[in-house]
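User: Teach me something about this protein's shape.
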Amino acid sequence: MISRILFTKNIYLTLVFFIVLNLIQAQQTHLYLDQQLPSRTPEIFAPEVISKENEYEFGSVFSKDGTEFFYGVDVGERSEIRYTRLDKNKWTIPKTIISHAVYGYNDPFLSPDEYRLYYISDMPLDGRGNRKDHDIWYSEKRPYGWSKPINVGENINTNKNEYYISFTNNGTMYFSSNRGKNNNFDIYASKMEQNRFQEPTKLSDAINTAAYEADVFVSPDESFVIFCATRSEGLGRGDLYISFKQEDGTWTTSKNMGPLINTKNHELCPFVTKDGKYFFYTSNKDIYWVDAKILDQFK
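Assistant: First, the predicted structure itself:
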């Protein structure tokens, strides 16, 4: 009798295992909006679904499991954040989740635990009046959706512009700002301690120069950064550069990512998926993606 019960239980557990496995495999086949996976040649991501001919899309980020996608879109004189998710093996029609009739919201990025969605906005602190400089804000995940915007606070935000956010696994925030001398945009990092961002430090001159540096993506393990810069040797209006952290904690001198990525247009908004497989960025007002193995050639 006992052996029969154990046999039945084993069959049941085996069936459950295969059902769960099939569900996971089915979900994985639908990741990245059912798009054919890219090679080492960049291509437009999800044409006419996400990247539309008559729109300017930028600042994209996937959730760590690849089932949610957030991105920014210019709509006239302001911007908004849109969202789509994988639901029952089908991606939902992208919808606007954070917007305002006057103020802009863009550069979305998820916190390491994904319970906060960070972004930038030119909205005043009291939510009234004329647009101001860009600050970093966030919304918290609630049962009904995302909360109203919450300003990150004065340790990060100034009376100058703060742009484009990304995070390490331990919660250190990387961003850019023109708070320095001559309104020059540079890249900064701020550690998270006791649930509070600390005073930011500017990255070294291996990355920051007298030119424009912004739109920084930091890998979760803090092993490399990719950012947009406007330099004399650049190929266009703004190029993507990459730098790697060395064993002694210093950064290698940043390298232009070359003509495979950079064009005569403006390349910006870099992002590498949490699994390290795909590299996303914006070029010529569309979102592009490419196999992230191309990053190895710059080490």
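Now, about its shape. The first helix runs from residue 2 to 28. The helical segments are 2-28. If you'd like, I can walk through any region in more detail.
User: That's plenty for now, thanks!
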